[in-house]
Amino acid sequence: MSLSNRIAVYTGSFDPLHLGHENIIRRAAALYEKVVVGIGVNPEKSSYFDSDARAALIRAVLADVPNVVVEPYHGLTVQFVRDQGARVLLRGIRALSDIEYEFSMSLTNSSLAPEIESVFLMAQKEYTHLSSSLIRQIAALGGDLRGFVPEAVGAELRAKHGR
Ligand code: ADP
User: Fold this and answer.
1) Contact 67, 36 (CB under 8 A)
2) This model's pTM is above 0.85
3) Phi and psi for 31 in degrees, rounded to 5?
4) Does residue 132 have an active-site annotation?
5) What count of Cα atoms within 13 Å lies in the side-chain half-sphere of residue 99?
6) Candidate of 42, 48, 94, 99 to mutate for ligand 1, largest count of ligand atoms within 8 Å of Cβ
7) What is the Cα–Cα distance from 4 to 75, expressed in whole angstroms?
8) By the 8 A CB rule, do 90 and 121 touch?
9) Which long-range contacts does 26-32 make (Cβ < 8 Å, 24+ apart)?
10) Cis status, amide bond into 150, omega within 30 of 0
11) Mind listing the pLDDT tens digit for each residue in 71-106?
12) For a pLDDT cut of 70, what percent of the chain falls above it?
């Protein structure tokens, strides 16, 4: 199967989706014909929201963007990218500290699948401090999540903590 330059696969845990992720997805959707948001499922790691709940939230938040699709996946990321018919593996970069990890992942992925190109979008400055682990901590402590997550995600987080 030939792989398309016009399809980008944006992978991550998205546990949960926050405004930094949403911003990357919207910007990618303006650049590519189709963006597949791939939710990596690791059965050995416990998750905060299960993959179906994460997928449903991302679909709800991006419902106004017709060229975005959301799929949980198991196994190798590069295999998932190939299965989507895509040549572009998209990741976001927040700070210099992300670069070391992303650089080694991209070298590993290009050894496994030289036909797939990793492409990086830099976080917009208002979102560079956001991470899913920070969001989970704020939610557990009852903090105000406005400015961190889309409203639908905030509602799920409040419900999870009985608020
Ligand atoms: P992972 O579990 O693979 O690190 P995450 O769900 O944390 O994935 O993030 C998915 C992708 O989004 C990664 O490429 C990550 O660097 C990027 N990302 C995370 N937070 C932000 C942010 N605030 N702004 C832009 N990109 C981000």
Assistant:
1) no
2) yes
3) -100, -35
4) yes
5) 3
6) 94
7) 21
8) yes
9) 26/62, 26/65, 27/121, 28/90, 28/121, 29/62, 29/65, 29/67, 29/68, 32/6, 32/7, 32/8, 32/67, 32/88
10) no
11) 999 999 999 999 999 999 999 999 888 999 999 999
12) 100
E strand or H helix that includes residue 82: helix 77-83
Q: Which amino acid is at 158?
A: R
User: How confident is the model over 20-30, as pLDDT tens digits?
Assistant: 999 999 999 99
Catalytic residue, candidates 21, 34, 82, 87: 21
Extract the tokens encoding 15.
């546990």
Between the two ends of the chain, the Cα-to-Cα distance in Å is 49
Residue 20 Cβ inside 6 Å of ligand 1? The answer reads yes
d(CA 81, CA 119): 13
Burial label, 96 (beta-carbon count in 10 A; 0-12, 13-18, 19+): exposed
Place of tokens 């990793």: 118
**Of the residues 6, 26, 27, 94, which is catalytic?**
94
